[in-house]
Each structure stands twice: as structure tokens, then as C-alpha cells.
Design goal:
The complex is a heterodimer of chains A (331) and B (559). Chain A is α/β, with parallel strands linked by helices and 331 residues long. Chain A has helices at 19-29, 74-82, 101-105, 127-130, 137-145, 161-174, 190-194, 202-206, 239-247, 265-268, 322-327, and strands at residues 6-13, 34-38, 51-54, 58-61, 66-69, 90-94, 113-123, 149-153, 179-182, 218-221, 226-232, 237-238, 253-263, 280-287, 290-295, 308-314. Chain A folds into two domains: 6-188, 3-Layer(aba) Sandwich (Rossmann fold), CATH 3.40.50.300; 195-327, Hypothetical Protein Yjia, Chain: A,domain 2 (2-Layer Sandwich). The chains are: A alpha/beta (331), B alpha/beta (559).
């Protein structure tokens, strides 16, 4: 493996839940180069100002990447995207309104790709009715259960806060383990959707200045509802520490992402053995119930990546030094 | 006849007209591409100057068979080696005996591999149906014993799975590190060569893509029509396989069908199943435009939509109590391929444009959703004689048939399922009671719903004598009768494969029966379907067809 694998974000959810709005929001708000695949039979509805050219089978987006369909299968779509000139830093797949997001997410296991997260949209006003609909109840519940990140969209349409709380609790029960976030017009903070900015793939992180506040262990608000913390790692850390971190994340953690050098347990007790040569680079991630540790390819001809872990949590739910404390356990 | 043009009289053992007002004749007269008349040779001779051609004197002439549900890949798949369970005749007329054991499959592949000259070429095969090999699963290690280093891919009959050998796994980088849920694993935890669903099959890369591309060649379109002619068919539909908004695919159809030797008429459905311009209003407009450009052999005007999956794949939408013995981990019901509450809006523009919508509904829940959608569009936009058709219609219930009759809808029933998967439907998918009432031709008839029957080729072999045999006898592959009360008589089955099929594609004014003025499209048979034992219906030989007045002998080679 010579290049980092391309992260794949799947956007699912029933008709009308706001999938397309979310895709447009991501394209508009992210500074990553994102290619889009839609599998809906319906037309591609990317906002016009995000499109620079339209062909019969694809759109060229303002970010230089393309948006195409699964018409000829995933392999063909991938080929179209790779031959489009501008290589993407992320792939966003918008599932059809009746698709099982888990099946679409299976494409994220194609060699060269990496499933980042399954984002499922729910319409705050309609989802209860849809989840009991005579025909689509099972489809809607299957979609909700597939979520790593469940976006309760159009939350502004609910007229009181208790209703919203009840709805979110009920949805959390249907999507066991997913992180539930609320949004209006699909405006979920981009770092929540795609992962903490300071720890996103090195390829993209290197090309732009690190965002303010992320350069050192720190603390800054992502948006009104969330806040983030980042720990920059100056030395490799023990594998058990990382495993314990991922295995015991509190519900308040919305997303975690990091690029770490891990050393195996045998050498962990001996501080002298913590040398970079023995360490393996991993991309670690957590979103909803999904946690993963993926070996990360480093390119020796390039400057070393920035080793750091970032997380986003619900505002006020974690002490500001929570992550720092986890990584330097007293012993 | 207003000209002095000479015409041809074909005396026959019997002419079965499917015209209730004049059911039989001794001969048929053809002038140019049309039928001048049917009756006795003397009656026909009285029209004027003529020539008598005795070539069909020993044969029975029927209206050409009309397959209202099949797909053009029926021709393209023959570029690959057939390894299905049932006997099947290729478009060149060669009989491929069914592979009834894993050893048969391997032997067939070994021979195909030995016949290949280019060592780097991938061996492609199709039609494998593991449901018939319940004891053992055919996996890569089996294939390796006969294919060696040659990459090999078998597409299953369902189209949802593929099995590849170790050489192809190596080439595509499929090993123990594979994380895709589409990569099946054996008891040892290692990938066993089986790839599930598009996400798995795409990992086979070019091999899979090559197989799909073969469906769009001119050769595959010729083979599709040749296979039809060999079975007595004069009109085929391509129901949702062609992307009509793709100028290349459209011009390809125009090219082959404009060749006078092309041996069938083709009705190509508009479909939004595979992406492209999927605004139904735009597609409706395009379809109306194409209809104005249609020729004798290339027709337009029907639209294919799809609501659910397949019963044997446990993906059809079936109402409670859903599936009988689904596989472990099954979610309980099938999957929607189109949201049911979106259906009325999807049908609406086609309905308003005067087109006929044919919707794939295998399960009764899908039928319900389509019937409701038609009710809604009829309330919005009343229209007489739309003939919107429930395709497959396998589990449609009696009350649904009554509603369909009231709405003016048609049914195209997948009768071949009774033979090819009837045992599995009774024992596994839906259980004995519902299996007995599936593909309910007798109920359709009693309810007054115009119905045809179909093969869905390449899913099951094209051939209306076989399909009619299924509807008449309802005998499964194991030889048991499934739901005797849904059997229909031979005369009704013969109507279903001719005039009723023509009716649901709105061509019953031109084809589907042998009457003065209609196109001279005939199936020429070696025996009389109304005289043989109904169990012998499918054994009747087919001489070939007459298409637009031109005799088209079948190619049969049993060498």
C-alpha cells in the first residue's frame, strides 16, 4: 500500500430526509476535494453554483472532481472519477431513498478505499410515521440501524424542545450505538460529518494551514453544539492505551480521529524501546459504534505526518483535558 | 386487393388463427408483408393471381409468438460458457445439456478452457444455480482443479452472485485481508471465491465488466433475435436493459433492425433503471419522440419500472407472513427498489404522455403499491385503455386481480417459475399454500384481466411452448403438480402467448392473430398444440417463423 486509502462517506436515509441537502452542504463547506456518486434513479440535484460543467453521464464540480451515477456499476464510477484529472480526497456516496446503507457501505471495502462513516438522515417531522408505515417501516428502520452518525434533520420543525429530546432518545434506541446529532437544513458541522479537521488524512491536512487552535493540545468550539480537543503526540504510544481509548469512549464523543505511532505491548513498559523504528503508523477512528485501527502508509519521501488525535464531543459533556488524561494514564 | 400484385398461398395441416370469429383455416395467403386472408385454398385463390407454396403443407401455422418480458442480454450471455442446471439451446441451435452436478460444471469448464487458445484470456461462464446442489457448494478450490492458472468467473443464474477461481482472486487482490462483506469465506475463514451482490462482484474487475459489455454488441442483438426465431417468436421486448437516451445504444438497435435479415421485431422499453437522465417527464417526452420514429421492426411506447426484487433471492416484497424459511440473518421481508410512495409521481408523466407502464412486481406487496399508484394517477388524470401492466405478477392476490380488472390493467405472469423454482417456492420461499396460488393464470382469467405469460429470458430459457406448458400443467422440475386449480387450458395459454401479449404492448391491431390485414408473422410448428397431449406441448418441434411474409427457418444443430 503506497498511498493512503481514499475515505468513503455514505449518506443514506429515506426519501425527503435531506440527503441531497447534506451533499450540497458538504460540497459547499468542506475544503477537501470531494467526488460524489449517486445511486438514486432520480436526477442528480447538485446546486448549480457548485457545478462547472454537465455531461450526459457526469457533472464536473467546482472543486475539480466529478459527480456520477452507479449506472454502469461501482467499478465504472470509480474509473470515471479517477480519470477525471483532479484526484479526490474523499468519496461521498449518496444512497437512494430506499437503499440499505450497509450494502452501499460495502463499496467502502474496495481496495484503495476506506469506509469512513455511514451518515443516515432522518426527517424529524416524518421519521416516526415512516418507521411505522405499512410498506416502508422495515426499510426505514433498517436504514436507521445502519447509521454511524444519525442526523435528525429539520429539527426546527418540532415546536418544543421536549419533543426533540424524546425523538432523539427514540432514534438512539433504533440505531443502537450511532451518534445522534440534530440539524436544520442538514447544516451539520463539517468536522462532525467528515472527522476532526486537524486529524483528517495527512494528504489533505498538509496542503493547508492547520486550523487555529489545533496546533497544540487545546480546546475550541466547533459550533454551538459541539466542541473539540486535540492532543499532538510527540512519541509513539502503547497499543493497549489506544485500544483502551477506543473501547471505552463515552457516548458524548461524536467523532474521534487520529494518526498515531503505536508500539506493541512487549516494548511498552520499557521506555527506551519506544523508538519510531519499532512503531507502526495507524489511522484510528471512532464514529458512532464503529471504531477502527487501520495501518497507515507513510511516504518516506515526504515530511513525516503530524501525529495527533482529535475528538469532537457534545458541548460541555467532557472536561477539556479528557483526551490528554486518557493518553497519559497514571501508572 | 387493389393491385395486381401476385400473392402466395401457404396450405398447412392447420392454421390456428387465435381469432375467435374464424378460429381455423386450411391455408393462409400472404401479400408482401401482410396477411391477405385465411381460409381454404380455393377461397384464397379467388382473390386473383397467386402462387401456391407447399412448404408448410405438413405444418401447423400459428400467429408468431410474442415474448412481452425478456432482455437483450439473453443474446450476449452466449459469449460465455453455459453451466446452468437445465438443458438450453443456444442461438445457433446447439443444445447445451444441463449441468446437473458440480462434476458436470467442472467438466464443462475444463472443455471450455481446453478450447481456448489465448492463455491470458479469462474463462467466463454463466447460469450456475447452487440451489440445485444442496449438499456441496462449488467454490474456487473446485474451479482450480480444472482451470489452473487461467482466470475464471461464473455468473450465477440469479445475477446476484459470481464464483471465481484462485487465479482471478490473485489477479484482483482478493485475499484473507479482504474486508468487503461481499467476499464470502469458507469454514477456514479464507475467501472461497464466491462474490456477493454488486459490491462483491465488482472486485472481479474487468472480468465482470467484460461480461456486461458483451450485452451491448451488435452480435448479441443478433443472437437474441436468432434464439427467438428458433423458438417460434416473431416479437421480443427488451424490458429495461437498454439505455435509450444513450445515442450509441439507440443507433445500434436501429442498425440491426434495419437489416432485412434481422429475424425478429423488437419492442424496446424506456427505462430509468440504470441512471442517466432520470427525470420521468424527460424520458416520457423522449419515448413519445421515439414512437414517432419507429419502424416495422423497431418499436417503442412502453416503459419499464421496478418495485421489488426476486422471490428466490428473498428480495421480493411479500405481505405478512412474508417468507416461509428465509436464510439465517434475513431481515424478514424483501427490498424496495423504488419507494412505493414515490410510485404515483413516477408513473404520472408516462401516463399523461399516453404511454403504457410495465412495472416489475414479484411480491404481492409490490403489486399492491403499483395498483394503488395506478389508481392515484387515474384519479388525477382519467384515461381510458392505458393497459398498464403488472410484470411477473407472481403473488398477486385474487382481490388485486379484481382491482386490476376494474382499472383496465393487464398482467404478465412469470409462469416459468412453476417449473424452474416451484419446488423451492413450496419448500423454502413462500410455503405450500402460497406456492400453489402463485403465477395464477386461472384467477387472472376468471377476474377478466388480460394476461400474458413469460420467460424473463435469460433468467429462464426463451420459448413460448415451454412457457405455455408451464401455465397449462404447472409441473415442477421434480415432476409434481403445484396448484392444480390455477392450471389453464391450452386454448387460453395459446391466446396468452399471442394476442394477449400483443394487447399489453398495444400491437394487437397489427400482430397476435392471423387475420386479413395484419402483419404476416407466424410460428411454424411440427405438430398441433391443440391436438397433442398437454404434457407434450413443450416437445413440439419448431420449423421456424415467417416474419413480415419472409420464411425464417430455425437453426437447429444437434451435433
Amino acid at each position: 500500500m503506497s498511498t493512503p486509502r481514499l475515505p468513503v462517506t455514505v449518506v443514506g436515509g429515506y426519501l425527503g430526509a435531506g440527503k441531497t441537502t447534506l451533499v450540497n452542504h458538504v460540497l459547499r463547506s468542506s475544503d477537501e476535494r470531494i467526488a460524489v456518486i449517486v445511486n438514486d434513479f432520480g436526477e442528480i440535484s447538485i446546486d448549480e453554483d457548485l457545478i462547472v460543467a454537465a455531461d450526459s453521464d457526469k457533472l464536473t464540480l467546482a472543486n475539480g472532481c466529478i459527480c456520477c451515477t452507479l449506472a454502469d456499476g461501482f467499478a465504472a464510477a470509480l474509473m470515471q472519477i479517477r480519470s477525471a484529472g483532479t484526484l479526490p480526497q474523499r468519496l461521498l456516496i449518496e444512497a437512494s431513498g430506499v437503499a440499505d446503507p450497509t450494502q452501499i457501505a460495502a463499496y467502502g471495502h474496495t481496495p484503495g478505499l476506506r469506509l469512513d462513516a455511514v451518515v443516515v438522515m432522518a426527517d424529524a417531522e416524518q421519521v416516526r410515521r415512516q418507521a411505522d408505515d405499512r410498506w416502508v417501516a422495515d426499510t426505514v428502520r433498517m436504514q436507521l440501524a445502519a447509521a454511524d452518525l444519525l442526523v435528525v434533520n429539520k429539527i426546527d420543525l418540532l415546536d418544543d424542545a421536549r419533543k426533540a429530546d424524546d425523538l432523539c432518545d427514540w432514534l438512539a434506541g433504533l440505531s443502537a450505538g450511532a451518534t445522534v446529532v440534530r440539524a436544520s437544513r442538514a447544516a451539520v458541522p463539517i468536522d462532525v460529518l467528515l472527522g476532526p479537521r486537524s486529524a483528517r488524512d495527512t494528504a489533505s491536512a498538509r496542503e493547508r494551514p492547520a486550523p487555529e487552535g489545533a496546533a497544540a493540545p487545546g480546546w475550541h468550539a466547533v459550533e454551538d453544539l459541539f466542541e473539540s480537543q486535540t492532543v499532538v503526540l510527540k512519541a509513539p504510544i502503547g497499543m493497549p492505551v489506544i485500544e483502551a481509548l477506543l473501547a471505552n469512549l463515552p457516548d458524548a464523543v461524536v467523532r474521534l480521529k487520529g494518526l498515531v505511532q503505536a508500539v506493541p505491548p512487549a516494548s511498552e513498559s520499557d521506555a527506551n524501546a519506544r523508538e519510531t523504528a519499532d512503531a507502526t503508523a495507524y489511522l484510528i477512528e471512532a464514529v458512532g459504534k464503529r471504531t477502527s485501527m487501520t495501518p497507515h502508509a507513510t511516504d518516506p519521501t515526504q515530511p513525516p505526518p503530524r501525529w495527533a488525535i482529535s475528538l469532537i464531543s457534545h458541548k460541555g459533556a467532557l472536561p477539556p483535558n479528557w483526551l490528554q488524561a486518557r493518553l497519559r494514564p497514571d501508572r | 386487393m387493389g393491385t395486381n400484385e401476385p400473392f402466395v398461398i401457404y396450405p398447412a395441416r392447420r392454421v390456428i388463427t387465435i381469432n375467435p370469429a374464424f378460429p381455423f383455416g386450411d391455408a393462409v395467403a400472404v401479400a408482401g408483408d401482410r396477411i391477405l386472408g385465411v381460409g381454404s385454398t380455393d377461397e384464397l385463390a379467388s382473390w386473383g393471381e397467386h402462387r401456391i407454396d407447399d412448404c408448410f403443407a405438413e405444418h401447423v401455422i400459428m400467429p408468431g409468438f410474442i415474448e412481452a418480458h425478456c432482455h437483450v442480454m439473453s443474446g450476449g450471455l452466449w459469449n460465455s460458457t453455459y453451466v446452468g442446471f437445465f438443458d438450453r439451446r443456444d442461438p445457433q441451435g446447439l443444445l447445451w445439456p444441463g449441468c446437473t452436478s458440480i462434476d458436470d460444471v467442472l467438466e464443462r469448464l475444463a472443455k471450455a478452457a481446453a478450447d481456448m487458445t489465448d492463455d491470458s484470456q479469462t474463462l467466463l461462464a454463466w447460469g450456475l444455480d447452487p440451489i440445485y446442489f444442496p449438499g456441496e457448494r462449488l467454490v474456487a478450490s473446485h474451479l482450480d482443479t480444472v482451470t489452473g492458472d487461467r482466470p475464471t468467473l461464473i455468473l450465477h443464474a440469479s445475477g446476484h452472485l459470481a464464483t471465481i477461481n484462485s487465479a482471478l482472486m490473485d489477479r484482483c487482490g482478493i485475499d484473507e485481508t479482504a474486508t468487503s462483506p461481499g467476499v464470502a469465506r469458507g469454514a477456514d475463514g479464507l475467501p472461497n471465491g464466491e462474490l456477493h451482490e454488486p459490491a462483491g462482484m465488482m472486485l472481479a474487475g474487468e472480468a465482470f465488466a467484460d461480461m456486461m459489455k458483451a450485452n451491448r454488441t451488435e452480435q448479441s442483438r443478433w443472437r437474441y433475435a436468432s434464439e427467438a426465431r428458433n423458438a417460434g417468436h416473431t416479437l421480443l421486448t427488451d424490458l429495461g436493459t437498454t439505455q435509450l437516451w444513450d445515442p450509441d445504444q439507440l443507433s445500434n438497435w436501429k442498425k440491426v433492425t434495419s437489416d432485412p435479415a434481422y429475424p425478429a421485431r423488437v419492442m424496446v422499453a424506456m427505462s430509468n433503471l440504470f441512471g442517466g437522465t432520470a427525470d420521468p417527464a424527460e424520458l416520457a417526452e423522449l419515448c413519445v419522440q421515439l414512437k414517432s420514429e419507429q419502424t416495422d421492426k423497431l418499436r417503442f411506447g412502453i416503459v419499464k419500472l421496478i418495485l421489488d426484487g426476486s422471490i428466490q433471492g428473498f428480495t421480493a416484497r411479500i405481505s405478512w407472513p412474508h417468507y416461509y424459511k428465509p436464510p439465517p440473518g434475513h431481515i424478514g421481508n424483501g427490498m424496495w427498489l423504488t419507494a412505493p410512495d414515490q410510485m404515483a409521481d413516477l408513473v404520472d408523466p408516462y401516463h399523461r404522455a399516453g404511454l403504457t407502464v410495465h412495472c416489475h412486481c414479484n411480491g404481492d406487496e409490490a403489486t399492491e403499491a403499483f395498483v394503488e399508484a395506478v389508481e392515484q394517477v387515474l384519479e388525477r388524470c382519467p384515461r381510458w385503455d392505458h393497459r398498464h401492466t403488472v410484470q411477473h405478477c407472481q403473488l398477486t392476490t385474487p382481490d388485486q386481480y379484481r382491482r386490476m380488472a376494474a382499472l383496465g390493467m393487464c398482467a404478465n405472469i412469470f409462469s416459468n417459475h412453476i417449473y424452474y423454482w416451484g419446488d423451492q417456492h413450496r419448500d423454502v420461499t413462500v410455503g405450500p399454500e402460497r406456492a400453489a396460488r402463485m403465477d395464477a393464470c386461472a384467477t387472472a382469467l376468471a377476474s377478466g384481466v388480460s394476461f400474458s405469460i413469460h420467460s424473463d429470458s435469460p433468467i429462464t430459457p426463451l420459448g413460448h411452448l415451454q412457457t405455455a406448458w408451464c401455465a397449462v400443467n404447472r409441473v415442477t422440475a421434480s415432476g409434481q403438480v403445484l396448484g392444480p386449480d390455477e392450471r389453464i387450458g391450452v386454448p387460453d395459454a395459446l391466446r396468452a402467448i399471442t394476442i394477449e401479449a400483443a394487447r399489453q404492448i398495444k400491437m394487437d391491431g397489427e400482430i397476435g392473430s392471423i387475420e386479413a390485414g395484419k402483419l404476416a408473422d407466424f410460428a411454424v410448428l411440427e405438430d398441433d398444440p391443440l391436438a397433442v397431449d398437454p404434457m407434450a406441448l413443450r416437445d413440439i418441434g419448431v420449423w421456424g417463423t415467417v416474419l413480415g411474409g419472409v420464411p425464417q427457418p430455425a437453426q437447429i444443430s444437434d451435433s
